[in-house]
Amino acid sequence: MNESVSQDYDIIIVGAGMVGATLACALGQQGFRIGLIEVNEPNFDWPADSVDQRVSAITCASQKIFESIGAWPLMCKQRVSPYRDMRVWDATGSGSVHFDCAQLGEPLLGHIVENRVILFGLHEQLQKLDCVDLITPASVTQLDIELEQARVALDNGQQLTAKLVVAADGSRSKLRELAGIETSGWSYEQHGVVAHITTSKSNQETAWQRFMPDGPLAFLPLSDDNSSIVWSTTPEHADQLLAMDEADFLDELQEAFGDHLGRMLKCGPRAAFPLRMQHAKKYTLPRLALLGDAAHTVHPLAGQGVNLGLADAASLAEVIVDARQQRQDFGAHRILRRYERWRKGENLAMLSTMDGFKRLFGSTQPLMKWLRNTGLHLTNSTSPLKNMIMRQAMGMEGDLSRLAKGQTLNEEQ
């Protein structure tokens, strides 16, 4: 990437996280001049024996997006962990379901990848692109949308212009706020506790999830045969879990999860983050588009949050490239509305489904308990239904972008 920073770009992307960096790679490889603004300077110097507290369940569709932009092999050189099975059960009943990739004739269901490994692969690709400038540390302080361009002011005094500005700056998006776009949503009154866990038994390349009244507890398989956990629970309980010494925490984790992976032997550093559902009332304005967490946040119980954002990035890239090929103004609202119509319905459907699951499995009412256990039993015994759910979870259903199909942005549909 260039040392000097131009003042004028084709596209400015605010946020160089997983979603923003994916869009920058996809468009930079098509020759667009990109200004990529990030508040925190990326740091990829980590101890060899450490594991990131935050991991993502990467679907087959998201893997294809990464493959299409050349980032996936770089991630594989670091560490990616395939999972081939998923086991889900209700702590307050007998209902359970087992998803197995072999039933679909697929080699795996997806991968668990540390967030920093994903970022490493994407930023390695970005460094090869002379048309992408990474501007960091910097944040946007002002947004002005004009007829033929948008202008942003940065806290370092720079003024940048572009035909299009993209907000990929997270659920508390400053750019979304500056644009005056409202959101709807609510807090789940839950925190997700994350940690790296060593167990006495192999993780069996299986993602495990136990639904409890306070929230789900997930064990996600890592390549060292250990697991990354996401324990969704009340804020008060989360605080208690963070305050415990390691032995007490492992005892409580053992009691909550059972002995499916043997004994809980060791725990890495713990952290917690609040969970909420949020959806932007608009994804686009003239010269502006929101994607990823800036547009929507979802409960992590199915691990779909980052995959929705990556699908946003791939779809927006396709809309922009198609518009340029047709000599259209890719920053015009009528063009950006194609992206909004494409993604908003699918995102809303996933948000609603995850919200419904959270409420169904969090209820202690006898009728709801009967419904969810009956539903789990029915799903497990009905192959067509189970296969449909698996294909959906793998990102193989819906209106897929060319990148998510493993194609290039220039290929004809």
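The record above closes out task 2.4. Task 2.5 opens with a second protein, given below.
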Amino acid sequence: MSDLQVSLIVIGGIVVASVILLNWLQQRRYQRSAEKAFECKHEDVLLRVDETIAEDGYAELQPSRESSQEFQAKLSIEPIEPAEISQPDSASEGVTAAPVKQKTLEVDSASAVDYIANIRSETLIAASDLTEVLRRKFDFGKPVQWLGQRDTGAFWEEITIEANDGRGGYAGLKGCLQLVDRSGPVSEVSLSEFCDMVKNFTAHVHAVADFPDIRQAYAQAVSLDQFCAEVDVMVGINIISKDGGAFTGTKIRALAEASGLKLETGGAFNYRDENGAILFSLNNYESSPFLPDNIRTLATHGVTFLLDVPRVKNGEKVFDQVVHLAGIFSTTLGGMLADDNRISLTDSGIAKIKQHLGNIQAMMKARDLPAGGEIALRLFA
């Protein structure tokens, strides 16, 4: 083979290789362009959720016209009247006399549940001097309440950091450290620290303070806590599904709202009286709370009505309302009333629960701590 033939073969090979290389480079360039173009993910309008409904968390739960008619046909729910709450007879008193009298009685009864430092001064204690002690309301393990008396013999009024405008003064003060709440009794250390704060305050304003004995106060706190533990009971009625079926969140919500309950931030539907106090609540029998964001897709095997016994006035009447409503839920959802062991709850069982509830509230009344009263609401917060 001549040199010319070898040269032509080499040149031909180079040309072929160049063409192959050029085609490969062009293919890579187009591939990279395509990948870059598809890096941006675009919204699929077929999968888009209606933003108006999602933001509201409520609109999508409204049943259709047919569903509304079906619910109305099935329910016929009787309106539940809030428990009657007795009010003091103020017909023979002036307009301002009734609330003042209530406040005075509350101060007298508070001595059973508070450690009270009584402060007196020959001159008025300026309201502006109270700012620092008012800020320390939660520094001693239990809440602190301050009461003031504008003149000797005048009625006592509560003083708060929000309402204290720094004007005027007080002839007398009461610093009240709560002895007990649901976490237990106050400690001796906290009582001592509270006394130290009051002593520093009285030295600053040139006043004097009287303190109860700390050890006796602690013993009183322990005794009160034991009593509170005895009456701190939650009454629950479960409605559980039959044969492993599930209740849908939308149906639960429709039933609850038709019955006057409202879904609130705590993950439960609450029924309140005309004063805003919670009488009972509806909770998920399972661990997931009821939330606006999940109720549309939620499915559960049961719901539970809860009544916080020491926080509710007229507990037996409210319990009757709960039982009535639980029966409606059971019928409409196709479930059954059951106890915490998933055993069917009979009329006899319900009667025993009601009797136990009545005994608890009678015990509280005998202790001058009526269920649902202002003191009870503080102790069982």
